[in-house]
Design a protein that fits this description.
two-stranded antiparallel sheet, Carbamate kinase, nine-stranded mixed beta sheet
């Protein structure tokens, strides 16, 4: 069992694949999956994207630095919505960020994060790394290391890592276990190279799994075989 995990979610978990905004049935499912691992006794950190609000290619007419900052604010919106949804079912939750000082958001302080976990709170990290030019994958890796996680879970719509795109290649082979070195040398696109580099440096394993398989998060924190795992070299 892993005691402290960081879950990286896409914004699409709030609305469903290819949709926008917030869909209550999807959010209910999301809350249910998070509740399973909270009830299991795991310290949970979350980083969520903003793909349900807008996507990067839609902001291509403005400078990249500005587009990234807009994206950061999108993750703040999702973090607050998720906080409200978790609190509605009795899960204590706090949103922390360096990019805004809204009344319901607290700044990131390492000592405080440990206090939140000790008090049984889910901690949602909003606003990415707080700098443009970095993705939420990199933010997830950074926050996982900062919170002392012993597992990073990237919750996707694919049940692991493949040697090629399974949607385009029916012969694509699933890789149940792979090292950081192999993931980088193969140029696998499941996470950014910056995220791989951070996790590799701090020997933090990553599990890639299909979030839409009920109970997959719980199986991962229990240490069961689910999805694919990227291990330190």
């Amino acid at each position: 069992m892993y005691q402290r995990v960081l879950v990286k979610l896409s914004g699409e978990v709030m609305c469903g694949e290819g949709s926008r905004g917030f869909d209550q049935s999807n959010i209910n499912y999301l809350v249910q999956q998070i509740a399973q691992i909270v009830d299991y006794g795991v310290n949970v950190g979350i980083v969520i994207g903003a793909g349900n609000i807008f996507r990067g290619e839609e902001l291509s007419e403005i400078p990249h630095s500005l587009a990234d900052q807009i994206g950061m604010l999108g993750t703040v919106i999702n973090a607050l919505y998720l906080k409200g949804s978790l609190q509605k079912v009795g899960i204590k939750c706090v949103v922390v960020s360096q990019v805004t000082s809204l009344p319901s958001i607290r700044p990131i302080h390492y000592d405080d994060i440990n206090l939140y976990f000790d008090a049984g709170y889910v901690v949602i990290f909003a606003g990415g790394t707080s700098n443009p030019f970095f993705t939420t994958d990199t933010a997830a890796a950074l926050r996982a290391v900062e919170m002392g996680a012993n597992l990073l879970i990237k919750a996707t719509k694919v049940n692991g890592i493949y040697d090629s795109d399974p949607k385009k290649n029916k012969s694509a082979r699933k890789l149940d276990k792979i090292s950081y070195y192999d993931a980088i040398s193969r140029g696998l696109k499941v996470m950014d190279m910056e995220a791989f580099s951070i996790c590799g440096r701090y020997k933090l394993p990553i599990v890639i799994l299909n979030f839409f398989e009920d109970g997959s998060l719980l199986r991962a924190v229990r240490g069961e075989d689910v999805g694919s795992i990227i291990m330190p070299d």
